[in-house]
Each structure stands twice: as C-alpha cells, then as structure tokens.
Amino acid sequence: MKCEIIRDLLPNYLDGLTSQASNEAIEEHLETCAECRRCLDSMREELVLSEEKIKVRKKELRPFRKAHRAVWRAAAVTALVCVLLWAGYTYYFERAWTVDSEDVKVTWEKSGGVVTLSFQPDREGIYINAVRTSHNPDVVEVKARHVNPLGDKHHRNGYCGYTFVDEDTILDEGTGAPLQLTGEEVLTVKFEDKTEKIPVAALYDGTGLNFSPK
C-alpha cells in the first residue's frame, strides 16, 4: 500500500476499527517504512496526551460538578420547604371548623323589619361564618376560620336573619316574595357541641330566645 493510504488508515488502526486483513497490510508496511512508523508513534503520543488532558480536565471540573450538584440539592430542598410552608399556611388559614356554642356569643337585633342574629367569637384571631345550606336556608352552620393577616379583611362576626313584613309574614330569601308563617317554621343553628332550634316567629320580637339583644 502507498504511504498516503496507510496514514489515512492509521487512526482507525489505533482505534481497532480496521479489519484483520487491513491490520496485516498496515503492519507489513510499517516494518519497512520508517516515516509511517514515526507518524504512528506521533499519533500514539497525541492520543496519550489527549487522554491525560481529559483526566486533568475531569479532575479540574470535579469540584465544580460537586458544587453544581450541591446547588441543585439546595434548590430542591428550598423548593420543597416552600411548598410545605405554603401548604401549611393555606391549611391553617383556609380550614374552617364548626365551633362550640360556648365559644360564640349570639345576639339578636331588629332594625325596622330586618331581624339579624350575630355570632361573635370569644377570642382574637378567628372570624365567624354563619353558613346557610343551599338546600335549606333555614339551616345555619356556625363555622370559624383563622384570620389571615395577608388576606382580605373580614368582619369577625357571622350573621343570619330574616326580613319581616309583619309578625306573621317574612320575605323569601331567594325571590323576595312574601311568605305567610304557619308557626311551624324553625331556624336550625348547628354548633359543634349542640344544635339549637329557634321558631322563626319568635325572632320577630326576640321573646323567648336564650340569647341577649344587641
């Protein structure tokens, strides 16, 4: 083979990519060609130097890779902590619970024909919602939530009530139409520890109620 062909094959020869027949031809040529042997030796030296450079480079990069992994681990831990803190924050301030009757002061107030029951918490840091059920507006569940210092401001008291046309007639909550009372209508107020049933007719003047006027 000509020297040009041999030298073109030498890189593949060093990488072990040439066939057995090619290897034999290359080695036979190298036995008689000093110039091609020097070319092969030069390639081997360059290969050794390249491998050494790679090793040195890897050694130089090792601290940076460790630092990079440490940064990613720290970022992952920080993200996890933030998620847990946000979940805890949201749970604490968004969670509602039904309060005990002893933890709420209930008052009655009448202005014109509008009768209002107020549910006032007995401690700071919470606010009350008087939640009427969608299927029955005459059922109220007294719930509390923690006051969120970063959220919207809330009235601390919960409210529910009726609009009376006269002592025997109220206005429907949904339609505003007059409803004649039969005497059997009951407002059910649910606390955690008990349920109060209040005749709606008794709310007209507040007589017979077990809580004080406002």
Bin the helical content.
40-55%
Percentage of residues in strands: 25-35%
Largest sheet: 6 strands, mixed
Tally of individual helices: 3
- State the order of secondary-structure elements, H for helix, E for strand: HHHEEEEEEEEEEE
Q: Give the termini distance in whole angstroms.
A: 114 Å
What Rg do the Cα atoms give?
43 Å
Helix-strand makeup class: alpha+beta
State the low-pLDDT regions, or none: none
Count the E strands. 11
Can you tell me the overall shape? rod-shaped
- Arithmetic mean of pLDDT: 84
Lateral arrangement of strands in the main beta sheet: 8-7-6-3-2-11
Describe this protein with a few key phrases.
214 residues; alpha+beta; 6-stranded mixed β-sheet; 5-stranded mixed β-sheet; 3 helices; 11 strands; 40% helix; 28% strand; rod-shaped
Furnish the topology, listing elements before pairings.
Elements: H1 3-14, H2 20-32, H3 34-94, E1 97-98, E2 104-111, E3 114-121, E4 126-132, E5 139-146, E6 158-166, E7 169-171, E8 178-180, E9 186-190, E10 195-199, E11 212-213
Parallel strand pairs: 2-11, 5-9
Antiparallel strand pairs: 1-5, 2-3, 3-6, 4-5, 6-7, 7-8, 9-10
Helix pairs in contact: 1-2, 1-3, 2-3
Structural notes for this entry:
- By secondary structure, the chain is an alpha+beta fold.
- It has three helices and eleven strands.
- The protein has helices spanning 3-14, 20-32, 34-94; strands at residues 97-98, 104-111, 114-121, 126-132, 139-146, 158-166, 169-171, 178-180, 186-190, 195-199, 212-213.
- It has a six-stranded mixed beta sheet with strand order 8-7-6-3-2-11, with no helix packed on it.
- Strand 4 (126-132) and strand 5 (139-146) form a beta hairpin.
- The chain starts with a helix and ends with a strand.
